[in-house]
Amino acid sequence: MPLRELHFTDLPSAVREAEGLLAGGYTQMGNWTLGQICFHLRVVQDCSIDGYPWYFVLFAPLRPIVRRTLLPRVLKGDSPRGIPTTSIYVPGNDLDDSVEVAAFAESTERLLGHTGSYHPHPGFGRLDRELCEKIYAGHAAHHLRFLRPVG
User: Gene3D superfamilies, per this entry (predicted)?
Assistant: First the structure.
């Protein structure tokens, strides 16, 4: 079964999609449940405000290449599949969907309400508010496309 084609114009749309999947049920077409996906989305976007692990600066020399090659795909919701993520972003197996959807919604509100600058993204560098939201909306579309609504 092919993956869904998803594109979100903003992060609240991604939250509404997650809430809809929670309310209506879903079929999992990938490795992660809704709760695992929402956990991953939350911890990744929280780093924009809270900061990234110190060792992520090691990727800084690659930013121009990553920004030029990967960013257009992320913004289209067409992130490459199968790229392993660092262990801090990998969810556990015992997560509750409803708890994680609520935490993702709260994280999104926090990100959108943030008035300061963001920490430089490991792959894309400094981001303004608009680009930050577009990247995380594309990231959400990438992961949520692995869940198909029931019905």
Answer: dinb family like domain
Q: Other C-beta atoms within 10 Å of 53: how many?
A: 10
Taking only the tens place, the pLDDT of each residue in 77-99 is 677 777 777 777 878 899 999 99
pLDDT, one tens digit per residue, over 28-77 is 999 999 999 999 999 999 999 999 988 888 888 989 998 898 888 887 76
**How far apart are the C-alpha atoms of 59 and 61, rounded to whole Å?**
6
Measured between alpha carbons, how far is 71 from 81 in angstroms, rounded to an integer?
Answer: 14
Give the span between the Cα atoms of 65 and 114, in whole angstroms.
28
User: According to DSSP H, which parts of 51-128 are helical?
Assistant: 63-69, 71-75, 97-113
Max CA pair span of the chain: 46
What residue spans define the domains of the chain?
11-149
- Identify any residues that bridge with 121 across adjacent strands, giving them in sequence order: 125
- Helices assigned H by DSSP within the chain: 11-24, 34-50, 63-69, 71-75, 97-113, 129-144
- Close Cβ partners of 105 (under 8 Å, ≥ 6 residues apart): 15, 18, 19
- For range 130-145, the mean pLDDT: 93
